[in-house]
Design a protein that fits this description.
Blueprint: E1 4-10, E2 13-20, E3 23-30, E4 36-42, H1 48-55, H2 59-62, E5 64-69, E6 72-77, H3 79-86, H4 88-96, E7 99-100, H5 104-107, H6 126-135, H7 140-152, E8 156-163, E9 171-177, E10 187-189, H8 195-208, E11 214-218, H9 229-241, E12 250-254, H10 258-268
Parallel strand pairs: 7-11, 11-12
Antiparallel strand pairs: 1-2, 1-5, 2-3, 3-4, 5-6, 8-9, 9-10
Helix pairs in contact: 7-8, 9-10
């Protein structure tokens, strides 16, 4: 996961604060001769960050800050730099949190179960996360997940995992259909399920897992029919409130969908 980097221009100086990975990296350099004035690296913030305001106290009102996140550059007013310094731990938690950009195709990937499986950024180990819920000590978690999935998609009654590799133990996700008739369960491979079904299942897997505590989701509408956007917003809202899942989670989303942005705003009012 790429780190989050702040570069603050202070006249003849540039201050860099990088969060992510093993901890904090700080760098103060002279722009006149590219000379490194001070440098610090470690798990805790040092006094170097406070030197920014001693060198150029006017920066707190007059200067701007460049933020680079995964290659993107954006401009923020200088008070943001004050926030980044004074809320160092929160910013570090944000930098370390997984940023989910779930891919419906990768969600269908078979996975080898592990006892500590946590959903990856693309969701390519969804089957392993579901296996952890099925075999974990809280047997009610998977039942509540299946109930929430059925409420969102009535044609699906539950999930099943099929072992496809006896040597590695890799398993593939299948869905149990709601047939309305008696008899043995009818399942379909996840390859035949809709992208929306895969995404809903992944969101629910996040909700009923213990980790992560902070959920960052990029463009959750990808792969969904526009009519489903409101349902996604409602589901994520319930996750943030603790009405759905094991515990309340802070959920942050980024989206290029105007309808979803409007739905999110209405829910926040």
């Amino acid at each position: 996961m790429p780190p989050i980097i702040w570069n603050l221009e202070l006249g003849a100086w540039r201050y860099t604060l990088k969060l992510g990975g093993s901890g904090v990296y700080e760098h103060l350099v002279s722009l006149d001769d590219a000379r490194t004035v001070a440098e610090s690296s470690g798990g805790e913030r040092t006094e170097l960050s406070h030197s920014v305001h001693r060198i150029a106290p006017e920066a707190s009102t007059d200067e701007g800050i460049e933020v680079s996140d995964d290659g993107g550059i954006r401009l923020y007013p200088a008070p943001f730099s004050d926030f980044a310094v004074s809320h160092h731990q929160e910013m570090l938690d944000l930098a370390r949190a997984p940023r989910y950009r779930l891919s419906p195709d990768l969600l269908r990937t078979p996975a080898v179960p592990t006892p500590d499986a946590v959903l990856t950024a693309t969701g390519d180990n969804l089957a392993a996360v579901l296996d952890r819920l099925i075999t974990g000590p809280d047997r009610s978690a998977i039942a509540r997940l299946e109930q929430a999935l059925h409420e969102a998609i009535p044609t699906l009654r539950g999930i099943a995992l099929r072992t496809i590799d006896g040597k590695t133990g890799a398993k593939s996700l299948e869905f149990v259909l709601s047939t309305g008739t008696k008899g043995p369960p009818v399942t379909i491979p996840c390859a035949h399920a809709s992208d929306g079904a895969m995404l809903f299942t992944a969101f629910l897997a996040l909700a009923f897992s213990d980790e992560p505590g902070l959920i960052l989701i990029e463009e959750p509408e990808n792969g969904l029919h526009p009519s489903r956007l409101q349902e996604v917003v409602d589901m994520l809202r319930k996750i943030s409130e603790g009405a759905l899942g094991n515990q309340p989670r802070q959920v942050i989303i980024t989206t290029h969908s105007p309808p979803q942005s409007q739905d999110s705003c209405r829910l926040d009012r």
